[in-house]
Amino acid sequence: MKISAPGDILILCDFDGTVCTVDMGNEVLNRFTDKGWEEIDRAYCSGEIGSRSAYSQVTSLFRGTKAQMLEFAGNHEKLDPHFVDFYAYCREKGVDLKIVSDGLDIYIDAILRKYNLEEIEYFTNVASFRDGQLFIDFPQVNEECNRCGTCKKGILKKHRPSYKHIVYVGDGHSDFCPSKDADLVFAKGILHKKCMEDGRVCEYYENFKDVHDYIAGYISERLSATAMPEGVGCR
């Protein structure tokens, strides 16, 4: 795909395993739930249940407080070492970037603030604690499908009229659907495996330096082309 000039592009990034190289959602649930979570996670990974159902089942197993969750996330997060520079590049070039996650807002917000990235708009599930119990709300759910807590495909479609090109960056189960509707997909992990199995074109990446280099090359090429007088550089 040849990307158009800056201002035409939206980059949607998954969070767990992507912006944050650690799947913090899994880490949090592994730390603060009883063993019953393992069976729920197995059912989710095999496709027997969706994430909304998994979250609904796991809330009764959760044993922890908001403060404990935040402390744990702060001590165990690992932001992609190239993401801050990539986001700065996007801002410089007028490329919009938003986060779409099937995780929880509590740790996403805390991690973004830790790196002074709180201005990044994100869409995710909403966690709260009442009377010592965890509750999870799903403001981005697709009621017709009802599988994912956050319907990333729906978010992509809502933004489609505002952009010429939408780029998707992800790695996991909840990234399958939105990646099908993106103009350019950067994939690793389970998402890359699935794209290969389905014969869908994607760009493999290890970190955001790979994404940065690819996007920068296309933007540079486009700007150079538009700056040339008519006929120059043509063959």
Short synopsis of the structure:
With 235 residues, the chain is α/β, with parallel strands linked by helices.
Strand content: 15-25%
Broad shape = globular
The CATH architecture classification is: 3-Layer(aba) Sandwich
Order of helices and strands: EHHHHHEHEEHEHEHEH
Strand order of the largest sheet: 4-3-2-1-5-6-7
Largest sheet properties: 7 strands, mixed
Distinct helical segment count: 10
CATH topology, anyone? Rossmann fold
Low-confidence stretches: 225-235
Structural class: alpha/beta
Q: What is the average per-residue confidence, as pLDDT, rounded to a whole number?
A: 89
C-alpha Rg (nearest Å): 19 Å
The CATH C-level name is: Alpha Beta
Q: Count the beta strands.
A: 7
Number of domains: 1
* Estimated helix fraction: 40-55%
Distance between the termini: 20 Å
Identify the notable features of this structure and list them briefly.
single chain, 235 residues, alpha/beta, Rossmann fold, 7-stranded mixed beta sheet, 7 strands, 17% strand, globular, disordered C terminus
